[in-house]
Write a structure and sequence with these properties.
The chain has helices spanning about 65-75, 110-125, 130-140, 160-170, 190-205, 215-220, 250-255, 260-279, and strands spanning about 10, 20-30, 40-50, 55-60, 80-85, 90, 95-100, 175-180, 210, 225-230, 235-240. By secondary structure, it is of the alpha/beta class. The chain has a domain at about 105-175. The longest helix has 21 residues, at about 260-279. It is globular. The model has no long low-confidence stretch (mean pLDDT about 90). The protein binds adenosine-5'-triphosphate. Adenosine-5'-triphosphate binds next to strand 3 and helix 1. It is a peripheral membrane protein. One of its GO terms (molecular function) is ATP hydrolysis activity.
């Protein structure tokens, strides 16, 4: 069994001195309210993500995690500040950033294969028919859905639907994967299997990932860094934790290490502290 040694917890905030692929600078997001005051959701978020880095974002409900992800996806506009991908300002959705939602968002009148094919047709316009078929088949196999390819979404389980969503996102070869609680609706066993599957795919084909989760164990198991958000309104980044385990990770060995225990407690204490302020 792989063993992990104990290292000091490394916490950071703000913009990090690493190669920036996604660069979020002084991001502010507010919504107008009827009484003319603005409701400030995010206030001064600074974050840099590398092109092959897996980042998790954790924070209490309503602190603005989904809002942050939607701004990176181009589905929401920042009130001020800037968000750049590969040096270019993000102003709208784009095929280089694919989103995976918690509630699957599959088209119910299309089969599993057709749901993936639709995205491929829309984005990979220069690929010929044979190439498209091959890409769809390859991604069906990647998430173990070849046998279910011709079923409709209401004929498959929640875990399978989420795998279709992930295959669809990956099939168009995005530079960045944005996932909003992708495993949140799944039972523990299915969640564990799908986490491993997503990690396998990512380890073989690294890309930038930003994943929202409420689960500290999931964040430690999957990501390179964990972004801990302060409570809203006017939330920002409280701490960023470096996860010191090499990929591929052995979940059981990791869980038995002192370092895992310390990191987990550090994150939970952070969340408890902010939760206590709320009460
Ligand atoms: N379109 C909108 N208009 C006004 N307020 C909004 C809008 N969208 C989100 N908000 C508010 O912004 C805040 C942050 O919402 P967001 O969904 O980003 O939080 P979250 O951290 O993802 O929450 P959860 O963990 O519960 O999903 C909430 O108070 C929400 O009510």
């Amino acid at each position: 069994m792989m063993e992990y040694t104990s290292l000091p917890i490394n916490t950071q905030t703000g913009v990090l001195p690493r190669t920036g692929f996604l660069e979020i600078e002084n991001l502010v997001k507010s919504y107008p309210t009827p009484d003319k005051d603005n409701f400030v959701v995010l206030d001064g978020v600074n974050l840099t993500i590398g092109e092959d880095e897996y980042i998790s974002v954790i924070g209490h409900s309503g602190c603005g995690k989904s809002t942050l992800l939607k701004i990176v996806a181009g589905l929401e506009k920042a009130t001020s500040g800037s968000v750049r991908l590969d040096g270019k300002e993000i102003r709208q959705p784009g095929a280089e950033r694919m989103m995976v939602f918690q509630n699957y968002s599959l088209l119910p009148w299309l089969t599993v294969r057709e749901n993936i094919r639709l995205a491929v047709d829309e984005v990979l316009k220069n690929a010929n028919r044979a190439e498209k078929i091959s890409i769809v088949n390859q991604h069906l196999a990647m998430v173990n859905l070849t046998a279910a390819a011709d079923k409709y979404p209401d004929e498959i389980s929640g875990g399978m639907k989420q795998r279709v969503g992930i295959a669809r996102a990956l099939a168009i070869r995005p530079k960045m994967l944005l996932m909003d609680e992708p495993f949140g609706a799944l039972d523990a066993l299915t969640r564990g299997k799908l986490q491993r599957q997503v990690l396998d795919i990512w380890e073989n084909n690294r890309q930038a990932v930003m994943m929202i989760t409420h689960d500290v164990d999931e964040a430690i198991y999957m990501s390179d860094r964990i972004v801990l958000m302060t409570n809203g309104p006017a939330a920002s980044i409280g701490e960023i934790l470096e996860v010191p385990f090499e990929h591929p990770r052995d979940r059981a060995a990791m869980r038995n290490s002192k370092e895992y225990f310390e990191l987990r407690n550090h994150a939970l204490n952070f969340l408890d502290r902010y939760f206590a302020q709320d009460e």
